[in-house]
Amino acid sequence: MNNFLEIAVDAAREAGSNLRNEFDGPKKISYKGDVDIVTESDKRSEAIIVSKLRSHFPQHAIVAEEGGRGGVEGAKWCWHVDPLDGTTNFAHSYPCFAVSIGLVEDGEPVVAVVLNPVTNELFTAMRGEGAYLDHKRIHVSPIEKLATSLVSTGFPTHQRDSNRNIYYYWEFTLRSHGVRRDGSAALDLCSVACGRFDGFWEFGLHSWDTAAGMLIVREAGGVVTDLAGLPYRPGGPSILATNGHIHSEMQDVSAHIAERAASAPL
Q1: Last residue of a domain, which of 113, 137, 161?
Q2: Do 158 and 76 share a structural domain?
Q3: DSSP secondary structure of 200-247
Q4: CA–CA distance, 249 with 241 (Å, rounded to integer)
Q5: CB–CB of 186/114 below 8 Å?
Q6: What domain count does the chain have?
Q7: Could you list the residue range(s) of the whole structural domain that residue 105 is in?
């Protein structure tokens, strides 16, 4: 596993350096659909990561956001790569984005790397060996109640008119110290892992958004399920990641919101 982690860290750092160099310059932007942004920086970052992973692990499958696919069906090992998590932020020169690389073995995350190229913070984890920020062990927060918690979420750029997360955002805002929406699920999960946030929920994330971050949360002592409390797999329809102490409370609130939101107009 150490070799897997070392290569993933090298790939993240190389891609992150490229993103940081391009961050202050003009961005060439295109669209996937009406509002979903992709930049040339996304594509270059993905090419760097995929090339390095393929050169070291040619038998592994790769699933990457901007089109990298390879031998996924039946693969024991699969890398899930988000070369630029927070593209909209990056495109608007808002300094909150990340490189996220997660290795999944038989459907379960086993290696995770998330790099913030602006702060140069490096989050890493291997299954059963703890989670780290810049090589220092991290743990989730000790906060025990939602009322005294800071939580986070995100909203999709696509199908926004059918997403009911606004009801969750409203309710959790009233029930907590506040809800942050920074636009990078990978960094949100890492913030839960290191105690900056006490919980995070979102709908419709892809496997490349969560494969790394969910392992980092778990290895930091947190809990990751779906909003109903069922096991979460990368790419599942909903995710709830918390410090563990407020998990059941957030589940209960979510169930209450879901019941009301099902019949409420958007």
Answers
A1: 137
A2: no
A3: EEEES--HHHHHHHHHHHHHTT-EEE-TTSPBP-TT-SEEEEE-STTH
A4: 12
A5: yes
A6: 2
A7: 2-137
Sheet with 131-133, strands from edge to edge, namely: 69-70, 61-64, 77-85, 98-105, 108-116, 121-126, 131-133, 136-137
In a domain, 225, yes or no: yes
Which residue is listed with tokens 């919101």?
Answer: 257
User: What is the reported pTM?
Assistant: 0.93
For residues 120 and 136, give the distance between their C-alpha atoms in angstroms, rounded to a whole number: 14
Q: H/E element holding 131?
A: strand 131-133
Q: Answer yes or no: do 78 and 156 share one domain.
A: no
Q: Same domain for 126 and 6?
A: yes
Tell whether 266 is covered by a domain. Answer: no
In angstroms, rounded to a whole number, what is the distance separating the alpha carbons of residues 85 and 42?
Answer: 9
Retrieve residue 115's tokens: 């790099």
Note down pLDDT in tens along the chain; length 266 residues: 689 999 999 999 999 999 999 898 755 666 655 545 567 888 999 999 999 999 999 999 999 976 655 556 668 999 999 999 999 999 899 999 999 999 999 999 999 999 999 999 999 999 999 999 999 999 999 999 999 999 999 997 655 566 789 999 999 999 999 999 999 999 999 999 999 999 999 999 999 999 999 999 999 999 999 999 999 999 999 999 999 999 999 999 999 998 876 655 55
119 and 8 assigned to the same domain: yes
Asked if residue 49 is part of any domain, the answer here is yes
